[in-house]
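Closing statement on the adenosine-5'-monophosphate-propyl ester sub-project.
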Amino acid sequence: MSAISINTPEEYQKAYKKSIEQPEQFWEEIASELLWQKRWDKVLEWNFAEPSVKWFIGGRMNITENCLDRHLSQRGNQTAIIWEPNDPRDKARKITYSELYSQVCHFSNVLLRNGVRKGDRVCIYMPMIPELTIAVLACARIGAIHSVVFAGFSAQSVADRINDSQCSLVITADGLRRGARQSGVKTVVDEALKQCQSVHRVIVFNHLGWEPNMVSGRDVWWHTEMQQVDGDCKAEAMDAEDMLFILYTSGSTGKPKGVVHTCGGYTVYMEYTFRNVFQLREKDVFWCTADVGWVTGHSYLVYGPLLAGTTTVMFEGIPTWPDAGRFWQVIDKHQVNIFYTAPTAIRSLMAAGVDHVLSASLSSLRVLGSVGEPINEEAWHWYNLHVGKERCPIVDTWWQTETGGIMISSLAGVTASKPSHAGNPLPGIQPVLLNNQGEVIEENGVEGYLAIRFPWPSMIRTTYGDHERCRVNYFDTYKGYYFTGDGAKRDEHGLYRIIGRVDDVINVSGHRFGTAEIENAINQSKHVVESAVVGYPHDIKGQGIYAFVICEVTPDNPELLREEIYESVSREIGRIAKPDKIQFVSGLPKTRSGKIMRRILRKVAEGELSNLGDTSTLLDPLVVDQIVAERIL
Ligand code: PRX
């Protein structure tokens, strides 16, 4: 019996118990099933005070040998990636494990040829095409640290991320297609690089046949470089604690931070969680709809499925183009068995009516998954009834960029599942709920701040270049715990239900933004003096962005000013962070010490006007009346 597989409730109970009582033996057995170039000397050393967490100390390995090389003898001819293009009339691509291996080795040699060495940072800014996966794996193969930036982020965001980790090379493409829209990608990189000194080379994949401006001495074509190299590339022997990747994510303060994951623990945890949560079977076709630019794409589109030797679907387009039946058509077309998507997508397809989903068969589906934000009961039931036909278990997986992989979730069809509840912790995960005093609440049927009391292999190691920021953000609020930033309930059976963020982070369509980050972007707009941003419940996106903005003078043409603000947010962050509502105000509710009372603004945005709380401590209580009177519905 493999130490990795859990297929019954009893096996779950047994695994969970062992993971608590003997965590080191527990993880050691699982890690032993992977390919290591050198076995570890010690399983774990940790303290959450610094924090310092090290797994599989002294071990050497390479994640790509586990994703590719070890599958070649058994599954060389099996499809590794099915790529579904944006336009359904274009041909899908199927790439076998052997072909993927060859492409990755070739591209690894391209990176080496272009001066990239172990430990160098490489920024990947690409559309959803197989070459994105190839680029990621090639970095990992030679020990370069990849920093993938979602292709919806603006030039300024790209520049900030490149500069923060001093990337030496950028991998990109000419352009991207999303639904009816095409847009430049290389042009964004060109704009970003005006601010970046560290980049000496840009490799451009020719996706759309465009002819972007190529800067001589800096920019080279992917295809011409690939012709210069052969396909022999030995995988770098990575220390288990060497960095594998950096992924930037938003927090409640300052600019996005570079979450760092390391090689050994991440590899172990991805294969383990992927197989068990989705109850993987041989020959499964797995489709995760997330973009590789987010952690879900890293862990469960690229690494998890390839580690497990499954077939992973990569989709270039959007759920609503050419019509709202696209997801369902793709499931039938590629006979997808496991489908993993976000509540925001489910809600938007729900809003498009049930006909689209009813016109597809969906008979290949066996397991459904949800990720990124709380799934409301209505969406859960619709997903269960119309997509799963009430025969596919739904896994509601709670986790974060910082946790690397799924933390709390049912195991499909094996452990207890309840609408809108993530469920039980996975083996090895020790969640706690804390009260306002930071004390552990032991009983069930309670609500509190969600924290984790023991390390797991794929947890965040540091925030790139600023370890103190990691300590303060995650390990300082409640001493001795990793604090998630989420609030949660635990029902009478011990199942967890995630309520949402308790910090100044807004989750829009499953994407994280800090309120401070959006405010900074709004404040760059020329007539804006100050702004305050809060989240509010949004039918489709989960949360919408509501901005309260003070201008130099009362705007004559508020629409024009709104456009300027959109423009500013698009420039600083990207269109994905555009406020849904902008209200111009003459003042903000501030305490005498100048702190904005966001609690009041949140209530106004939520339309909960009957209970605004005590406003007497405000510097100017009258501003609240004006804000309420002019609120945007
Ligand atoms: O608030 C939680 C929410 O998404 C946050 C993490 O965002 P990010 O790092 O971008 O990763 C998203 C994909 C893993 C969490 O702090 N979240 C994630 N999954 C769920 C969720 N909220 C409720 N239920 C979930 N299943």
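The mean pLDDT is 96. With this model delivered, the sub-project is considered complete and its resources will be redirected to Aim 3.
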